[in-house]
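Bumping with the actual sequence this time:
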Amino acid sequence: MNGGIKLAIIVGLPGVGKSTVLNLAKDILISKGYHVEVVNFGDYMFKYVVSQGLVKSRDEIRNLPLHIQRKAQEEAAKNIRENLEAKAQSKENVVGFVDTHAVIKTATGYWPGLPLHVIRNLMPNTIIVVEAEPEEIVARQLRDRTRYRSDYANIDLVKKLLSMNRMYAIASAVLVGASVNFIMNREGKANEAAEELVSVIERL
């Protein structure tokens, strides 16, 4: 099903340092001869709804009818998979990282970021949950409110979401028989987390 592609979905709460770990891992893998593609799921969703003339900004997506949002999710997943498979036709050792969310906190409740219509089109080898200590996450949120959502800068909420993130990731993995890995990104040790991520990819 994976057509020679090693595809990993990377999830984590705002403030865990996911982007830092991912970029470091990408550099390591490239140095080892891999062709690495990092794609942001939200970018693909936005591109689809813009192509349909439905929105002009990202903030407008959340106001779209639910059936349209689901369609956008499905099309984004299909396009990501197709683009990675196209890369694999011309390049060897292709690794695809899909940067997204396992769980989404909304005014109407907690929603799965990787429901069936998304995960079955992506067909990942693994879902990797990047984590950090709750206190470190809150500290990062408070240091940089221009980048992170300040409503997440609450220790009790962060602890709850870390637990839910694990549960939602596992539930999504079960749907397609993917593995789940948990990587702790400790303060000042992003390189160690990146090395662990690389090790997971190389074992796939």
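The tokens above came from a reply further down the thread. The mean pLDDT is 92.
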